[in-house]
Design brief:
The chain has three domains: about 30-235, Jelly Rolls (Sandwich), CATH 2.60.120; about 265-340, Immunoglobulin-like; about 350-455, Immunoglobulin-like (Sandwich). About 10% of the residues lie in helices and about 50% in strands. It has helices spanning about 205-215, 220-260, and strands spanning about 30-40, 40-45, 60-65, 65-70, 75-80, 85-90, 95-100, 110-125, 130-135, 140-145, 150-155, 160-165, 165-170, 180, 185-190, 190-195, 265-270, 275-280, 290-295, 300-305, 310-315, 320-330, 330-340, 350, 355-360, 375-385, 395-400, 405-410, 420-425, 430-440, 445-455.
Length: about 450
């Protein structure tokens, strides 16, 4: 039987603009993919999972030897190199280290290896492409090939792995014993393993409940089995109830719309970088037409004639505005309102006033006058130059002195584009001040200045 467990997991993702990561080339491993999305509760560190000051917001490329940690509600979505369909999501309250990457496994695939310290992951590995994923915790190891599911580990001695499809091999690295978990199965372990048939196996949302259950150290493995089976039934009931309610609401709406012969309009999605919104027209009667229009802050933007059920894309204006999309025919009209932000990726600059290397020579204070422990005060003045000249387009402004944050403002805290900040320097030191500005489009601009103070 298995005496130790380990875990890892792969899942879905979305695009995040890349930015420079602070680790050196020596600390980074091979590039193995990219970070598609990450919450503010997520951090990354190159080289190890040790505690330290150099944890960064995960963005840009994904490397072997990267470590990720997430807090409550946090997540990191990764896309693996070579396949858009191969994705990993690291869930909340997790600590995961990607320790190795092989670019080929003999059949033009790849192999990625990860060490799951604790937490939850979901995964999807494309079938029939030779790709493999290996993971470990403690003295147990597992590997997948062409699989979709989720895995969790409480960081102590309990784990689970559930599959929607494919096959997962789990091996005890001490005894060499192994077992296979197939589609619709979940293996749960605490000193020994038990395999359960669950309708919710591999479901990423259900996996959160599973991790909560196995983390209860007061329960035996048999008690955990009963709790998990009950949770599976309850989760399936909630899915069925939700689907029934949604179908009922759709049917009611469709019946009302058909009786009135009024077309419907619904908002589907929008892209804040490309500045477009997508809406959909429904319930168009055969042989009729309707007018579909868009308004911004109450003012007309555009209008088209539609003759059938169809999607339609409208261009948005720069900034944050309230949009209304209206469809109308002789029988009546329907509309939907949305407040949307448009932040096109436009180059901007940060101007730091004065010389880029400023040498400060201040005579020592007379013996009778205190010199504030030798601190020299200087005013850092910089200006953020945006094409729109509007601070609402900014996501974050950070000022660091020798790597330490001395000022950070986010979103609504950013009220102007001109800054004057008092900086304190010690005599006989060099001080590098870096200003970093992040646009809501993801575009990042940095500017720096060196202050050298004489003794």
């Amino acid at each position: 039987m298995f005496r130790h467990l380990s875990f890892l997991c792969f899942v879905l993702a979305m695009i995040v603009p890349s930015m420079t990561f602070a680790a050196s080339k020596e600390e980074k491993g091979d590039k193995v993919g990219k970070i598609r999305a990450a919450s503010e509760e997520a951090k990354r560190r190159s080289g190890s999972c040790d505690e330290g000051p150099d944890w960064q917001v995960p963005k840009g490329a994904l490397f072997s030897h990267d470590c990720f940690k997430t807090g409550k509600g946090g997540y990191v979505q990764l896309q693996l190199k070579g396949d858009a369909e191969d994705r990993i999501t690291i869930g909340e309250r997790s600590l995961v280290y990607i320790y190795d990457w092989l670019d080929a496994t003999g059949d033009k695939g790849y192999r990625i290896k990860s060490d799951i310290k604790k937490g939850l992951m979901a995964f999807r590995a494309e079938k029939n492409k030779g790709h493999e994923a290996e993971f470990r915790t403690g003295t147990a190891a597992a590997s997948i090939r062409g699989t979709e599911g989720a895995i969790g580990f409480d960081g102590n001695k309990s784990m689970f792995a559930g599959l929607k499809n494919g096959k997962l091999a789990v091996r005890d690295t001490v005894t060499g014993d192994s077992l296979f978990v197939g589609a619709g199965e979940t293996v749960v372990g605490r000193e020994k393993f038990v395999v359960l048939k669950l309708q919710s196996s591999g479901d990423a949302v259900f996996a959160l409940k599973l991790l909560e259950i196995i983390s209860d150290t007061t329960k035996s493995l048999d008690e955990l089995k009963g709790l998990i089976e009950a949770a599976d039934k309850e989760y399936q009931k909630s899915l069925q109830a939700s689907a029934a309610t949604e179908d009922s609401e759709k049917n009611d709406d469709a019946e009302k719309m058909a009786n009135l012969n009024v077309p419907g309009v619904s908002y589907t999605s929008y892209d804040s970088l490309r500045c477009v919104a997508n809406v959909s027209v429904s319930n168009m009667q055969k042989g009729t037409d309707a007018r579909l229009s868009a308004l911004m802050d109450g003012s007309p933007l555009s209008e088209v004639v539609v003759k059938r059920n169809m999607p339609k894309r409208f261009s948005l204006r720069s900034g944050v505005h309230e949009y209304e999309f209206v469809v109308e025919n002789d029988a009546g009209k329907n509309s939907v309102k949305k407040t949307l932000g448009c932040y096109p990726m436009k180059p901007f600059s940060v101007k730091v006033f004065g010389k880029s290397h400023e040498y400060i020579q201040v005579p020592p204070a007379p013996p009778s006058v205190p010199d504030d422990d030798g601190l020299i005060s200087q005013t850092l003045q910089f200006q953020i130059r945006l094409p729109e000249n509007d601070p609402s387009f900014l996501n974050k402004v950070t000022v660091r002195q020798n790597g330490k944050i001395v000022l950070q403002e986010r979103l609504s805290q950013i009220e102007n584009l001109d800054y004057q900040i008092q900086m304190d320097f010690k005599r006989g030191t060099k001080n590098r001040v870096v200003v970093e500005v992040v646009h809501k489009s993801g575009f990042v601009v940095k500017a720096s200045k060196l202050y050298e103070v004489a003794k």
